[in-house]
Input
Amino acid sequence: MPSPVDPKKNLTPVGPAVRIAKPAVTKPVPGAPVATTRLNKRMAELGLCSRREADDWIARGWVRVNGQPAVMGQPVALDARIDIDRQAEQQQRQQVTILINKPVGYVSAQAEDGHEPAVVLLQPHNRWRECNSRMRWGHEQLRGLAPAGRLDIDSIGLLVLTQDGRVARQLIGEDSAIEKEYLVRVSYGAEAFNVQAAFPAEKLKLLCHGLSLDGQALRPAQVSWQNPEQLRFVLREGKKRQIRRMCEQVGLFVTGLKRVRIGNVNLGHLPVGQWRYLAPHEHF
Output
């Protein structure tokens, strides 16, 4: 059992200052019921941690609400004061986020159909020599490390693996709108070289907006020619095999796909099959 938390020691207040970027809380109407939400959800909304992480902190006695020890699943008002123990902050600072240039033939998450997950490449000898992080590799960094988004087995490029629930929520949360940029080599019927000249302009417009997958309209995308055989896609969503399926709908066949950017983080010169730590100054 976790030891009792001293309310006057090791607590970091998380009050209105943290919620500056959030919608203003309206004053309740006298006599009207006070709007509440589950504590773990509220902590995630404030960007403190993921819901799973919040539950772990609550179980450890690291969270107080309006000065009282938090209880798992408790509802809280939107203006409730949430205090976090410094131990939670220390634990969070030790969490790693890793960028890997995933090769063809590796899956993003769990092994399937005989194919290994990209996490098996996270070995000291595969660390990029130009990674300038002071972080030292340790096998404990594999604990809880999970992909924040998928990348198909036959695609290469930037894949994010993280222990940090805040990063995962930012990249794959329900309300995520982080841009993801891809370079996509295509053919059009028998044309594999000057595809740009053969491909109708109205179909390019469809790729940008107007297609649906799985019965749902896709968000607008930025699609343009990078060169006569290659398209540049910028998406704000990530349905399964989305780009390949979009291309199929307009008669294009994808012969190569590479993710080169997620938000503000670029793949850069990271070699295929190698990895590096997300630097402290980098933010998606």
Q: What stands out?
A: The first helix runs from residue 39 to 45.
